[in-house]
Design brief:
- The strands form 3 sheets. The chain has an 8-stranded mixed sheet. Strands 1-2-3-5-4 form a 5-stranded mixed barrel. The chain has a 3-stranded antiparallel sheet with strand order 7-9-8, with no helix packed on it.
- It has helices at 4-9, 12-16, 71-79, 126-131, 133-136, 140-162, 201-207, 247-268, 270-275, 280-284, 295-302, 312-319, 374-383, 392-396, 412-420; strands spanning 32-44, 48-54, 59-65, 85-94, 102-113, 166-167, 173-174, 186-189, 192-196, 213-221, 234-243, 292-294, 326-329, 352-357, 362-369, 405-411.
- 38% of the residues are buried.
- Helix 6 (140-162) packs across helix 15.
- It has 15 helices and 16 strands.
- The chain is of the alpha+beta class.
- It folds into 2 domains: 4-113, Beta Barrel (OB fold (Dihydrolipoamide Acetyltransferase, E2P)); 130-428, BirA Bifunctional Protein, domain 2.
């Protein structure tokens, strides 16, 4: 068989075809293989070294016996650092004691890149891990979250695609605030001011008049000064917008989507869930239709009075005994965005629906029926002391072919955090942006 140094001398594309993925080793028991990857762990005694290799598809232990290998291989197996890059050549054996049940009995091992001693060891502080996030994103902890999130969003997309939704691209540079001026990021845009998008919604509202069901999956930026485990200044929202959907239809879609995602992830990725101590059964038990709790009812439960706001602490109290996600609906119009339609049954309130998750997570989705009439929208803007001229094009949508419509936003990081029981939302995105973190 080919030797490692020959393989390493060959072009990458030719040597690639000879490399076995760690996840495929089970099909090669008793056979000789080449694997390559980063050193995940290493330990050695006088005559035996274990180099544990990670290649992105899995982790395998490579056993190097001093008596079976050249001096060079023995030296390399002993001198590697964590995260050095190695190539190994050996025979695959089934071994119950090995991390994933398979082991490579090495014939050769070559350090391709040794580098420096890796700065991340055990039990590092959260702050330190954020400082070295560029190195920490390769950790199993983060990689598995990223895998989970990618699969989650694939499911979400295919759910909506299956219903006839079209994915669209909203702009990230916008000319006015959509979710309140206090959390908007201002950027210089040639000789003008622009704002980073807080939501795709207003643009999606324009697009549904050409194609009635659309969604965007895009970043939202919020200058949130809050340092909480549920706020980021940059997060990714999935935002469906639906023509001819009223408040109730929109809520049904929100609930169906969440239930579907819980069930799909539990069925398809139980192993990933278990790595984060989430019992897949918890997610299989999520079952709609979810309770709809009005703001008024929530106030009674909390012993608060009209006008008091329901923040995270209140959400936590409301959700303490509740096992299922719950809609909080019909909050006072003064407390909600200008684009939310007035609730005819109680005109002090709007047709808004926040979906609260159990387990202290709070709001994970937020939606509403939108104002469809020009005059009502003008009134709502005035009430909120917003300038008509800043919403010129948005108002104009109510002049031509305006229809009842609704939509919502699902915070992908909040959903991940809940499903994976992550301590903080920062672990649900590779490079979290918060008030005091812009680096790396
Ligand atoms: O409730 P929000 O602000 O609603 C909107 O932006 C609407 N325009 C959405 C729509 O109707 N199309 O945000 C929606 C969701 C929240 O429920 C939450 O999950 C997430 O986005 N979110 C945040 N996630 C992380 N960090 C923050 N600072 C977030 N703010 C909102
Ligand atoms: Mg909200």
């Amino acid at each position: 068989m080919l030797k490692l140094d020959e393989l390493l001398k060959d072009t990458l594309s030719r040597s690639e075809s000879r490399i076995t993925k760690i996840s495929d080793l089970r099909d090669h028991v008793g056979k000789e293989v080449f694997v390559r990857g980063w050193v995940h762990r290493q330990r050695a005694s006088t005559n035996l070294a274990f180099v544990i290799i990670r290649d992105g598809t899995g982790i395998v232990q490579c056993a190097v016996k001093k008596d079976d290998v050249t001096e060079k291989t023995w030296k390399d197996a002993n001198d590697v650092f964590l995260e050095s890059v190695v190539y190994a050549h050996g025979t695959v054996a089934k071994d119950e004691r090995a991390p994933d049940g398979y082991e490579i009995r090495a014939k050769e091992l070559v350090t391709y890149f040794r580098g420096d001693a890796f700065p991340i060891g055990k039990d590092q502080s959260t702050e330190f891990l954020l400082d070295v996030r560029h190195l920490w994103v390769r950790s199993q902890h983060i990689v598995n979250v990223l895998r989970f999130k990618a699969y989650l969003m694939q499911e979400a997309r295919s759910f909506l695609d299956g219903m006839g939704f079209l994915e669209v691209q909203p702009p990230m540079f916008t000319s006015s605030a959509a979710e309140g001026g206090s959390t908007v990021f201002e950027v210089k845009y040639f000789d003008k001011k622009a704002y980073l998008s807080q939501t795709a919604q207003l643009y999606s509202e324009a697009m549904i008049e050409g194609y009635p069901l659309v969604y965007a999956f895009a970043p939202s930026f919020r200058a949130e000064p809050s340092r909480t485990p549920r706020h980021l200044t940059e997060f990714w929202q999935l935002e469906p917008e639906e023509a001819f959907f009223d408040f109730e239809m929109n809520m049904r879609l929100m609930g169906d989507l969440v239930e579907h995602l819980c069930h799909q992830m539990a069925k398809k990725h139980p192993e990933l869930l278990k790595k984060y101590n989430r019992d897949p059964k918890d997610l299989l038990a999520i079952k709609g239709p979810f309770e709809k709790m009005t703001y008024e009812k929530a106030l009674k439960e909390l012993g608060l009075k009209w006008g008091d706001s329901i923040g995270l602490d209140e959400e936590k109290t409301l959700m303490k005994e509740r096992k299922q996600p719950t809609f909080l609906v019909n909050q006072p119009k003064e407390m909600r965005a200008f684009y939310m339609k007035i609730n005819q049954k109680d005109p002090r309130t709007v047709l808004d629906s926040d979906l609260l998750a159990p387990e202290g997570i709070g709001e994970i989705l937020g939606g509403s029926e939108r104002v469809e009439s020009y005059d009502e929208l003008v009134r709502r803007l005035k009430e909120q002391k917003l300038k008509e001229k800043d919403y010129r094009w948005y108002l104009e949508l109510r002049k031509y072919g305006s229809v009842p419509h609704s939509g919502f936003g699902m915070g992908s990081e909040r959903l991940c955090r809940w499903m994976l029981k992550l301590e903080t939302i920062r672990d649900a995105i590779p490079f979290p942006r918060t008030m005091n973190r812009l680096e790396p």
